[in-house]
Amino acid sequence: MKKIVKWITIVAIIVIVISCDKGDSVGSSQISTQAPELSSLDSWIKENFVDPYNIDIQYKWNENEIDLNRYLYPPTEENVQPLLEVVKAVWIDPYTTLGGDNFIKFISPRQFTLIGGFNYNQTGTITLGIAEAGTKITLFNVDQLDLTNLALTRRYFKTIQHEYAHILNQTKPFDPDYGQVNPQNYTAQWFNRSIAQARELGYITDYASSSDTEDFAEMVATMLTTSKTEFDAIVDGITSAEGKAFIRTKEQFVVKYFNDEFNIDIYELQELVNQNTLDIVN
């Protein structure tokens, strides 16, 4: 009887093995491992952002990358490359020229997410861009960008300069004495001030009066979205001698920071950004 059971067991095992062998190979995968075919735009992004700087560009719809409580949509594909060409010209190229080929490679956000439409706030204002933890920047209203308008173009790309200043600060902190120049008027209610009122108090923009970190970033962003002549005109137009002195003091903190920490003359950087912007708009 034991022999019969033994033979039945052996036969059953053989049948199972044969049955399994008739199916797909155990080692085969049902998940495609082939690289997706790249469009001409994808190839351009890979060549100009992914390969040289390890920066991913998200321009296709991905609900995990956006706020689903807002009415947002992906950009029209034909508008993506023109926008990114400006990003490269006014941000990557100037820093690379003065900081070296590895500057952006080592210090940069790792992803840009592009949105086609406006990001409206309940207050009636529009958010042009946001950054998350120094690793991701989202740019809105890509489809409405007007590269024939200098003021609007500068305003748009000021977002990148501001957020990149934060990333630089995370790598190399700025002098804490910066926040002691005029700390008495920092406020969470900064939006109740006009830009003119903020400047009289010694802050380059209304948002700069929210905290020392935003103050520093706004100083950098304002300098990099104006020529030196234009920036000087802004400061010289402040009627308060004290407010004017505060901003000039902060300007020197910014100059020293870029020189000491990155060996970059911010006035040279300012001129490069300005000239590249003019070349694009004109």
Q: Rg from C-alpha positions? A: 27 Å
Which class best fits the helix and strand makeup?
alpha/beta
Shape: globular
Strand order of the largest sheet: 1-2-6-5
Residues in β-strands, percent: 5-15%
The number of helices is 10
Q: Span from first to last CA?
A: 97 Å
The CATH topology assignment of the largest domain is Collagenase (Catalytic Domain)
Q: At CATH's second level, what is the architecture of the largest domain?
A: 3-Layer(aba) Sandwich
Mean pLDDT: 85
The total tally of domains equals 2
Q: How would you spell out the order of helices and strands?
A: HHEHHEEEEEHHHHHH
Q: In total, how many beta strands?
A: 6
What is the multimeric organization of the chains shown?
single chain
Helix content: 40-55%
CATH secondary-structure class of the largest domain: Alpha Beta
Low-confidence stretches: 14-18
Major sheet attributes:
4 strands, mixed
Describe the overall structure.
52% of the residues lie in helices and 7% in strands. With 282 residues, it is α/β, with parallel strands linked by helices. The chain folds into 2 domains: 36-145, Collagenase (Catalytic Domain); 148-282, Collagenase (Catalytic Domain), CATH 3.40.390. The strands form 2 sheets. The chain has a 4-stranded mixed sheet, covered by helices on one side. α3 runs antiparallel to α10 (266-281) and α5 packs across α7 (212-223). The longest helix is centred in the middle third of the chain and has 22 residues, at 150-171. It starts with a helix and ends with a helix.
